[in-house]
Design goal:
Layout (H helix, E strand, L loop, with lengths): L1 H17 L5 H9 L20 E2 L5 E2 L2 H10 L7 E5 L5 H9 L2 E6 L2 H13 L5 E5 L12 E6 L8 H5 L1 E12 L4 E8 L5 E9 L14
Helix pairs in contact: 1-2, 2-4
Bound molecules: S-adenosyl-L-homocysteine.
Length: 216
Amino acid sequence: MQREYEFQRKRLVRDLRAHGVRDERVLAAMLAVPRHRFVKQHLKQQAYGDFALPIEAGQTISQPYVVARMTEMLKLSPEHTVLEVGTGSGYQTAVLAQLARWVYSLELVAELAQMAGARLRDLGIGNVKIQTFDGTVGWSECAPFDRILVTAGAPEAPKPLLSQLAVGGLMVVPVGDRASQRLITYRRLRGGGTQRNEGEGVVFVPLLGRHGWQER
Ligand code: SAH
Protein backbone atom coordinates (compact mmCIF):
# COMPACT_ATOMS: atom_id res chain seq x y z
CA MET A 1 0.00 0.00 0.00
CA GLN A 2 2.85 2.40 0.87
CA ARG A 3 4.29 1.98 -2.61
CA GLU A 4 0.90 2.54 -4.17
CA TYR A 5 0.54 5.82 -2.23
CA GLU A 6 4.04 6.86 -3.27
CA PHE A 7 3.20 6.14 -6.88
CA GLN A 8 -0.01 8.17 -6.64
CA ARG A 9 1.85 11.03 -4.95
CA LYS A 10 4.39 11.17 -7.77
CA ARG A 11 1.57 11.31 -10.29
CA LEU A 12 -0.09 14.13 -8.33
CA VAL A 13 3.15 16.12 -8.34
CA ARG A 14 3.47 15.61 -12.08
CA ASP A 15 -0.08 16.94 -12.51
CA LEU A 16 0.69 19.95 -10.29
CA ARG A 17 3.69 20.77 -12.46
CA ALA A 18 1.54 20.47 -15.59
CA HIS A 19 -1.03 22.71 -13.90
CA GLY A 20 1.58 25.48 -13.58
CA VAL A 21 3.25 24.99 -10.19
CA ARG A 22 6.88 25.87 -10.96
CA ASP A 23 8.73 26.12 -7.65
CA GLU A 24 10.73 22.90 -7.38
CA ARG A 25 11.07 23.23 -3.60
CA VAL A 26 7.30 23.38 -3.26
CA LEU A 27 6.91 20.35 -5.53
CA ALA A 28 9.50 18.48 -3.46
CA ALA A 29 7.55 19.30 -0.29
CA MET A 30 4.33 18.04 -1.92
CA LEU A 31 6.19 14.85 -2.80
CA ALA A 32 7.48 14.47 0.75
CA VAL A 33 4.22 14.89 2.69
CA PRO A 34 1.95 11.79 2.73
CA ARG A 35 -1.50 13.37 2.25
CA HIS A 36 -3.24 10.05 2.94
CA ARG A 37 -2.15 10.36 6.58
CA PHE A 38 -4.30 13.52 6.92
CA VAL A 39 -7.67 12.06 5.84
CA LYS A 40 -10.11 9.57 7.33
CA GLN A 41 -9.56 5.88 6.68
CA HIS A 42 -12.31 5.50 4.06
CA LEU A 43 -10.95 8.47 2.04
CA LYS A 44 -7.32 7.35 1.86
CA GLN A 45 -7.77 5.90 -1.62
CA GLN A 46 -8.80 9.38 -2.80
CA ALA A 47 -6.06 11.27 -1.00
CA TYR A 48 -3.97 11.90 -4.13
CA GLY A 49 -6.76 13.22 -6.31
CA ASP A 50 -6.49 16.96 -6.89
CA PHE A 51 -9.56 17.95 -4.91
CA ALA A 52 -10.58 18.97 -1.40
CA LEU A 53 -11.96 16.26 0.90
CA PRO A 54 -14.14 16.43 4.02
CA ILE A 55 -12.42 16.20 7.43
CA GLU A 56 -13.90 16.27 10.94
CA ALA A 57 -16.09 19.11 12.27
CA GLY A 58 -17.61 19.82 8.83
CA GLN A 59 -14.31 21.28 7.53
CA THR A 60 -12.13 20.36 4.54
CA ILE A 61 -8.56 19.46 3.68
CA SER A 62 -7.65 21.86 0.87
CA GLN A 63 -7.13 20.83 -2.74
CA PRO A 64 -3.45 19.94 -3.37
CA TYR A 65 -3.17 22.47 -6.21
CA VAL A 66 -4.35 25.25 -3.91
CA VAL A 67 -1.95 24.15 -1.16
CA ALA A 68 0.92 24.16 -3.67
CA ARG A 69 -0.06 27.53 -5.19
CA MET A 70 -0.44 29.28 -1.85
CA THR A 71 2.87 27.84 -0.66
CA GLU A 72 4.52 29.02 -3.87
CA MET A 73 3.06 32.51 -3.43
CA LEU A 74 4.63 32.73 0.03
CA LYS A 75 8.19 32.48 -1.41
CA LEU A 76 9.45 30.70 1.70
CA SER A 77 13.07 30.39 2.79
CA PRO A 78 14.47 28.03 5.40
CA GLU A 79 14.97 30.81 7.95
CA HIS A 80 11.34 31.99 7.90
CA THR A 81 8.90 31.94 10.78
CA VAL A 82 5.36 31.39 9.52
CA LEU A 83 1.93 31.88 11.04
CA GLU A 84 -0.84 29.71 9.60
CA VAL A 85 -4.49 30.41 10.43
CA GLY A 86 -6.78 27.37 9.99
CA THR A 87 -4.76 24.23 10.80
CA GLY A 88 -7.60 21.91 9.75
CA SER A 89 -6.11 18.50 8.99
CA GLY A 90 -2.54 19.78 9.40
CA TYR A 91 -1.64 18.93 5.81
CA GLN A 92 -0.78 22.46 4.69
CA THR A 93 1.03 22.89 8.02
CA ALA A 94 3.23 19.89 7.17
CA VAL A 95 4.03 21.31 3.73
CA LEU A 96 5.00 24.68 5.26
CA ALA A 97 7.15 22.88 7.85
CA GLN A 98 9.27 21.37 5.05
CA LEU A 99 10.20 24.83 3.77
CA ALA A 100 10.35 27.13 6.80
CA ARG A 101 12.24 27.19 10.08
CA TRP A 102 9.21 27.33 12.34
CA VAL A 103 5.44 27.16 11.80
CA TYR A 104 2.89 28.49 14.27
CA SER A 105 -0.61 27.32 13.45
CA LEU A 106 -3.95 28.36 14.93
CA GLU A 107 -7.18 26.37 14.75
CA LEU A 108 -10.58 27.30 16.13
CA VAL A 109 -11.79 23.71 16.62
CA ALA A 110 -9.95 21.94 19.45
CA GLU A 111 -10.61 18.46 18.05
CA LEU A 112 -8.96 19.38 14.73
CA ALA A 113 -5.96 21.03 16.41
CA GLN A 114 -5.42 17.97 18.55
CA MET A 115 -5.68 15.51 15.64
CA ALA A 116 -3.39 17.60 13.44
CA GLY A 117 -0.83 17.80 16.25
CA ALA A 118 -0.88 14.01 16.68
CA ARG A 119 -0.42 13.43 12.93
CA LEU A 120 2.54 15.78 12.71
CA ARG A 121 4.15 14.14 15.74
CA ASP A 122 3.64 10.69 14.18
CA LEU A 123 5.37 11.92 11.03
CA GLY A 124 8.29 13.27 13.09
CA ILE A 125 7.62 16.88 12.10
CA GLY A 126 8.89 18.88 15.07
CA ASN A 127 9.11 22.51 13.91
CA VAL A 128 5.40 23.23 14.39
CA LYS A 129 3.41 24.64 17.28
CA ILE A 130 -0.39 24.41 17.14
CA GLN A 131 -2.87 26.14 19.43
CA THR A 132 -6.62 26.38 19.65
CA PHE A 133 -7.93 29.91 19.43
CA ASP A 134 -9.35 32.51 17.07
CA GLY A 135 -6.57 33.04 14.55
CA THR A 136 -8.06 36.29 13.23
CA VAL A 137 -6.47 38.03 16.23
CA GLY A 138 -3.10 36.49 15.35
CA TRP A 139 -0.52 35.26 17.84
CA SER A 140 1.03 38.43 19.23
CA GLU A 141 3.47 36.67 21.64
CA CYS A 142 5.24 35.06 18.68
CA ALA A 143 5.02 38.00 16.22
CA PRO A 144 6.34 39.36 13.95
CA PHE A 145 6.06 36.67 11.29
CA ASP A 146 8.00 36.57 8.02
CA ARG A 147 5.04 34.93 6.36
CA ILE A 148 1.34 34.53 7.20
CA LEU A 149 -1.03 32.12 5.47
CA VAL A 150 -4.78 32.10 6.05
CA THR A 151 -6.46 28.90 4.85
CA ALA A 152 -10.10 29.90 5.30
CA GLY A 153 -12.14 32.45 3.34
CA ALA A 154 -12.18 35.93 4.90
CA PRO A 155 -14.50 38.91 4.29
CA GLU A 156 -11.33 41.04 4.38
CA ALA A 157 -7.73 40.66 5.53
CA PRO A 158 -7.82 40.59 9.36
CA LYS A 159 -6.10 43.79 10.58
CA PRO A 160 -4.24 42.15 13.50
CA LEU A 161 -2.59 39.77 11.05
CA LEU A 162 -1.33 42.61 8.87
CA SER A 163 0.13 44.27 11.94
CA GLN A 164 1.92 41.04 12.97
CA LEU A 165 3.65 40.78 9.62
CA ALA A 166 7.38 41.61 9.61
CA VAL A 167 8.59 44.47 7.40
CA GLY A 168 9.18 42.96 3.96
CA GLY A 169 6.93 40.02 4.94
CA LEU A 170 4.20 38.43 2.85
CA MET A 171 0.70 37.35 3.76
CA VAL A 172 -1.59 35.27 1.55
CA VAL A 173 -5.29 35.25 2.37
CA PRO A 174 -8.42 34.19 0.44
CA VAL A 175 -10.75 37.22 0.46
CA GLY A 176 -14.29 37.38 -0.86
CA ASP A 177 -17.80 36.31 0.09
CA ARG A 178 -18.80 33.02 1.66
CA ALA A 179 -19.19 31.22 -1.66
CA SER A 180 -15.89 32.11 -3.34
CA GLN A 181 -12.77 34.16 -2.82
CA ARG A 182 -9.61 35.44 -4.49
CA LEU A 183 -6.09 34.80 -3.24
CA ILE A 184 -4.74 38.16 -2.13
CA THR A 185 -1.05 38.72 -1.36
CA TYR A 186 -0.05 41.55 0.97
CA ARG A 187 3.52 42.74 1.32
CA ARG A 188 4.37 44.88 4.30
CA LEU A 189 6.52 47.76 3.12
CA ARG A 190 9.23 49.69 4.91
CA GLY A 191 7.58 52.85 6.16
CA GLY A 192 4.39 51.11 7.21
CA GLY A 193 2.28 50.73 4.07
CA THR A 194 1.18 47.52 2.42
CA GLN A 195 1.15 46.47 -1.21
CA ARG A 196 -1.80 44.32 -2.34
CA ASN A 197 -1.89 41.91 -5.27
CA GLU A 198 -4.88 39.94 -6.47
CA GLY A 199 -4.47 36.34 -7.59
CA GLU A 200 -6.66 33.48 -8.70
CA GLY A 201 -10.13 32.45 -7.59
CA VAL A 202 -10.59 29.80 -4.86
CA VAL A 203 -13.30 28.28 -2.64
CA PHE A 204 -12.59 27.94 1.08
CA VAL A 205 -14.74 27.28 4.15
CA PRO A 206 -15.40 30.54 6.03
CA LEU A 207 -12.88 32.14 8.37
CA LEU A 208 -14.91 32.67 11.54
CA GLY A 209 -14.07 34.84 14.54
CA ARG A 210 -13.60 38.39 15.67
CA HIS A 211 -12.06 39.66 12.40
CA GLY A 212 -13.74 37.08 10.17
CA TRP A 213 -17.33 36.06 9.55
CA GLN A 214 -19.46 36.45 12.65
CA GLU A 215 -21.42 33.20 12.44
CA ARG A 216 -21.48 29.83 10.75
N1 SAH B 1 -5.19 24.02 5.52
C1 SAH B 1 -6.25 23.20 6.04
C2 SAH B 1 -7.57 23.82 5.67
C3 SAH B 1 -8.62 23.52 6.66
S1 SAH B 1 -10.18 24.28 6.33
C4 SAH B 1 -6.13 21.79 5.47
O1 SAH B 1 -5.70 21.67 4.32
O2 SAH B 1 -6.49 20.82 6.13
C5 SAH B 1 -10.06 25.77 7.27
C6 SAH B 1 -9.89 25.62 8.75
O3 SAH B 1 -9.94 26.92 9.32
C7 SAH B 1 -10.98 24.83 9.46
O4 SAH B 1 -10.39 23.77 10.15
C8 SAH B 1 -11.62 25.83 10.42
O5 SAH B 1 -12.01 25.24 11.64
C9 SAH B 1 -10.50 26.81 10.61
N2 SAH B 1 -10.89 28.15 11.04
C10 SAH B 1 -11.96 28.88 10.67
N3 SAH B 1 -11.94 30.08 11.30
C11 SAH B 1 -10.82 30.10 12.08
C12 SAH B 1 -10.23 31.06 12.95
N4 SAH B 1 -10.79 32.25 13.19
N5 SAH B 1 -9.08 30.73 13.58
C13 SAH B 1 -8.48 29.53 13.39
N6 SAH B 1 -9.00 28.60 12.56
C14 SAH B 1 -10.14 28.88 11.92
